[in-house]
Amino acid sequence: MQKIRVAVIGYGHLGRFHAQKVDALEASELVAIVDANIDRAKLAQEAHPHAKVVNNLKDIINEIDAAIIVTPTSTHFEIAKYLVEQKKHVFCEKPITEKEVQALELVALVEKQAMVFQAGHSERFHEIFERVDDFKDYFSVPSIIRLERIAAFKGRATDVDVVQDLMIHDLDLISFLFRETPVAIEAKGFKIRTSKWDHVTAILDFASGKKAFVTVGRNFVKEVRSLEVTSARGTFFVDLMKNEVLVASKEANQVDEYVKVFSYNKRDHLLIEQDYFYKSIANRTPPIVSAKDGQKAIRLLDFVIKSLESGHKENVR
């Protein structure tokens, strides 16, 4: 089978991992790495001597079938639009654009050009989320949902606020797991380390009676990544760092059964995402996470930002 010729655009922290995955998969060939930074380009060439390393995407555009965008969010729209116009398949890390209006334009262009465009929402690929049907009672009733994604300051991704950098994961997870759009969003936050929002809590109200509390931060005292769903049915809790699930069902009637604990397998999310991407290209099937999915997450993100700036609850229209 002919390999899909791939370029990785951006060789920063995450770009390096993406380049490794392209090399690791049988379906893909790393043809080029694009980065205008001299130091990063040197590192890229040393790590991948078989690939071309260039500072301009146009230099290799005719040598590739697909590209992976791992550049700052502010550059995503311009790069992605150019690639799709050139009839190239695209995997774009989250968020796919800065604003929803840009995402809507991309969605329309992708449909017109009939290209595969996959959004990089890696948190969907925890193994436990393939088994949510086993816990559907917790997801289908009025409930209180809590998602936390907080850590100590690491000095990375400070070109964007934590809503774009971190909360975008959880906004996408809510849409993916609960299949419902909130009717209102209220957010509060603080600018601590940077001139942008460093710690934010958003409260999402749903017509079904669900209420979600989403907290993200990059100046916390410890690292936490978790999902909790509590209802009259009981509590379903996932530690996304330990790959552990804790369930407290109202049906448990023995002391040693009140809280059941089990683990799930840790997986290489980037590798799985890329594998799906190449299969979509080869089989001409829709991507597992579409440009439309990426646009929906940005829409919610925009309302979170609006609420932060206005200081009021925003109705999601």
SSE layout and pairing:
Blueprint: E1 4-9, H1 13-24, E2 28-34, H2 38-47, E3 52-54, E4 66-69, H3 73-85, E5 89-93, H4 100-113, E6 117-120, H5 136-139, E7 144-150, H6 162-178, E8 184-190, E9 199-205, E10 211-217, E11 224-231, E12 234-239, E13 244-249, E14 260-263, H7 269-283, H8 291-310, E15 314-315
Parallel strand pairs: 1-2, 1-4, 2-3, 4-5, 5-6, 7-10
Antiparallel strand pairs: 7-11, 8-9, 8-15, 9-10, 11-12, 12-13, 13-14
What does this structure look like?
The protein has 317 residues and is α/β, with parallel strands linked by helices. It folds into two domains: 4-122 and 269-288, Rossmann fold; 124-266 and 301-315, Dihydrodipicolinate Reductase, domain 2 (2-Layer Sandwich). The protein is built from eight helices and 15 strands. It has helices at residues 13-24, 38-47, 73-85, 100-113, 136-139, 162-178, 269-283, 291-310, and strands spanning 4-9, 28-34, 52-54, 66-69, 89-93, 117-120, 144-150, 184-190, 199-205, 211-217, 224-231, 234-239, 244-249, 260-263, 314-315. Strands 14-13-12-11-7-10-9-8-15 form a nine-stranded mixed β-sheet, covered by helices on one side. Helix 3 packs parallel to helix 4 and helix 6 (162-178) crosses helix 8. The longest helix has 20 residues, at 291-310. The radius of gyration is 20 Å and the shape is globular. It starts with a strand and ends with a strand. The mean pLDDT is 95.
